[in-house]
Amino acid sequence: MNIRIYEEAGSSVVNIITTTISYDFFYNPVSATGSGSGVIIDRRGHIVTNYHVIEGARSLEVTLFDGSRHSAEVVGVDAGDDLAVIAVKAPQSKLKPIRLGDSSALRVGQKALAIGSPFGLEKTLTVGIVSSLGRTMRARNGRLMSGIIQTDAAINPGNSGGPLLDSQGRMIGLNTAIFSPVNGSIGIGFAIPADTVKKAVPSLIEKGYVSRPWLGIAGQTIDAFDAAAMGLPSGGVLVADVFRRSPADNAGIRGSTGTMRIGNIIIASGGDLITGVNGKPVSSMDELNNAIDRMRPGDTVSVSVLRGNKTVVIKVELEEMPRNY
């Protein structure tokens, strides 16, 4: 069965060679190459991979399953979910789209197979199981990615951007990272769920980015210890700053007016303390971001804030997050 899956799905997996340019002490350009994997998603030549695979690349070269090489261009990127779509111009006969599975139906213990180019070794298959579901990890821009799949199928540098497959050869995730102190696989690999990929790809192809809702604040998590030291009845997210003309600014959410020191840490003070969104408690910046991420630009949310000694509910109409945010 593994042979059949490899032969069927392997033709949808590509090797990506990136070229980046840096400058030495004398400002002379120095080129460097890197490698990763990608997955063909349609016969128009669109390939999905990780953002970190192609980040900063001056040029991209894709090697298809038959060994043919093609230059590629970036179509869209989403640093927040570590996703990117690139495109190649190749005969449709050479472009076999991957079959996409349903990552919401995954169960711990089921078979998982990874195909990619670890350490530049093309078309490598490793086999394992789904070790855990619902993990979280940080994207390059600091955003917390949720719903991450954990697997013990060996994933090494170069596997990034390749598919994680189920026993039917359907892509259930996009391999993105390993957890290892030795720069190699020790049985803990992570993949972005296929459902996340399916949701993001159409927007990446059409717009070049993923539209996300935006509240427009800079916040700081206040835990129970900090709250007690600051004389607050509960923790939450202290609004350190409100971006000008943002949804939060338009709705009247207030930022900090000063700072205070708790031990060796300086904390913003005087601003609103966000304690809930749409009636559900919020105790950290990550929880606030997750609550906002479940909305859409144009949605109106009820933000509960502690202002002085009073709890105030503020209606905020979310906007699309600016591209440079």
Description:
With 325 residues, this protein is mostly beta strands. It folds into three domains: 2-94, Trypsin-like serine proteases (Thrombin, subunit H, Beta Barrel), CATH 2.40.10; 103-199, Trypsin-like serine proteases (Thrombin, subunit H), CATH 2.40.10.10; 213-320, Pdz3 Domain. The chain has six helices and 22 strands. The chain has helices spanning 2-9, 51-54, 194-206, 224-229, 247-251, 285-293, and strands spanning 13-23, 29-40, 46-49, 59-63, 69-78, 83-88, 111-116, 124-138, 144-151, 163-165, 171-178, 189-193, 213-214, 217-222, 236-242, 258-262, 265-269, 273-277, 280-281, 300-307, 310-317, 319-320. A hairpin with a 5-residue loop joins strand 10 (163-165) and strand 11. The radius of gyration is 22 Å and the shape is elongated.
Task: Present the secondary structure layout.
Layout: H1 2-9, E1 13-23, E2 29-40, E3 46-49, H2 51-54, E4 59-63, E5 69-78, E6 83-88, E7 111-116, E8 124-138, E9 144-151, E10 163-165, E11 171-178, E12 189-193, H3 194-206, E13 213-214, E14 217-222, H4 224-229, E15 236-242, H5 247-251, E16 258-262, E17 265-269, E18 273-277, E19 280-281, H6 285-293, E20 300-307, E21 310-317, E22 319-320
